[in-house]
Amino acid sequence: MSRARTGPTTTLNRNSPSHPEPNQAERPEAWSWHLLGLISPLLVLSTNLLGGAWVVTGVLYMLVLGPALDVTLGKAERPRPPHESGRPFEALLYVHALVQFIALGTLLYRASLDGNAWTTWVAAASTGLSSGVSGIIVAHELGHTRPRSISWWVGRVNLLSVLYLHFTTEHNHTHHRLVATSADPASARDGESLWHFVARTVPGQFIDAVRVHSAKDQRGANNPVLRGMGLQVLLVAGMYALAGLWVTVAFVSQAAFAVFLLEYINYIRHYGLTRQLGERQTEQHSWQSEERWSRWTLLELTRHPAHHMRASEPFWRLQPYDDVPTLPSGYYGCFWIAVFPPLWRRVMRGRWTKA
User: Is 25 a domain residue?
Assistant: First the structure.
C-alpha cells in the first residue's frame, strides 16, 4: 500500500544484550485483535443468506452487543507501542474491502427473493451498518494513501458501494485543514443535535467537495465530484433496469445507513470543539476514546487526535495523547446517548474546557 511516511523507523535487535526481551507492557498489542472487526461483515453476509429472523442479528450485534462490549471490555491502563511492520494491518484492509462486497451481494440476493418485505429492510440496515465500517472506514484509511495507487482505487470503489464518492475530496482537502472551525461542514457545533448535524453536513460536504475542484478550474463535466455523482446515478439506474425496484431500494438504503453511521462518527469526534480560522490546530480539537472494542473493530479510528496531527500515519501506528478531550465511552457506547440530543448535551456539557 503506497503511503507517505512521516519519519524513519528504527528496528531494534530485541535479542541483543543491550536490548533485553521487553516485558508484556512494552510489547506491541497483538495485531490479531483487529480481526474482531470482521465479525460484523461475516455475520451480515451469513444472516442475509439465511434470511428470516436471522437478518436482525447484524443490527443487534452492532447496536446492542457493541455498546455492551465497549463498557465491559474497558480500556487498557496504558497504550502499547506500535508495530514496526504494518503488513498484517494492510492485508486486513483489503480483506475488509473484499468481504464488504460479498456482504453487499448477499443483500441484493435477499432483496431479490423477499422483495418489499421487512426482512429486506432489516437486512439493508444490517448491511449498511457493516458497510459503514468495512466500506467507509476502510475507504477513509485508503484515501490517505498516494492518489491513484492501487490502495487509493480500492478506497474509491468502496465509497462507490455506499454512494459517497466525494468523501475523500472533502475529508482530505477541507476537513483536515479546517476542522473545528465554522468553515468545516464536518465539525459539529456545541449544542447541535445529531439529527440537525446530519441534515446540515451531508449536503454541506458535497457542496464543499464540488467547490474544492471548482477552485482548480475543474467545472461542469471536468469536476471529478460531479462526474462521480453521475457515475453513482448510472449505477443506481443500471441496477434498477437489471434487478428491479426493491433490489435498488435495498442497495440505496444500505448506503444511507452507512453514511448515517459515518456522520454519527463525525458528529461525536469533534462535537463542540472550536478554534478560530487561522488558529493552529492541536490535538485538543478532536475527541479521543481508548475503549478496546471500538479501537479493535474500528481500525483505531477512536485515536482521532493522533490522526489529525499526522494524517499520513497509518492506523496501526497511531498513539493516544494523555491530555485531550475524551469521550464518555467508545464509539459504540456513545451511539445511544447521541441519538437523544438532550441526553447527549447533558453528558457532554463541561466535559472539556481547555481552549
Answer: no
The CA distances from residue 52 to 41, 47, 63, 270, in Å, are 18, 8, 19, 39
Q: Are 286 and 304 in contact (CB under 8 A)?
A: yes
CB proximity list for 207: less than 8 A, separation 6 or greater:
185
pTM of the entire structure? 0.91
- 245 SS3 class: helix
User: Which pLDDT tens digit goes with each residue over 118-168?
Assistant: 999 999 999 999 999 999 999 999 999 999 999 999 999 999 999 999 999
Residue 191, phi then psi, degrees to nearest 5:
90, -10
**Which residue has cell 498516494?**
146
pLDDT of residue 22: 54
Q: What share of the chain is helix, strand, coil (3-state, %, to 5)?
A: 65, 0, 35
Residue 223 lies in a domain: yes
pLDDT of residue 137: 96
How many degrees, rounded to 5, is the angle at CA 191 between CA 175 and CA 177? 10
**What residues form DSSP beta bridges with 326?**
288
In a domain, 153, yes or no: yes
Q: Quick check: is 5 in a domain?
A: no
Domain residue limits at 278? 39-76+87-348
Sequence-distant (6+) residues with CB within 8 A of 211 are: none
Domain count, the chain: 1
* Per-residue confidence band for 24, with pLDDT thresholds at 50, 70 and 90: low
CA distances from 159 to 36, 138, 177 (A): 22, 9, 21
Say whether pLDDT at 169 is over 50: yes
Which band of pLDDT confidence, cut at 50, 70 and 90, is reported for residue 13?
very low
DSSP string, 140-163: HHHTTS-TTSHHHHHHHHHHHTTT
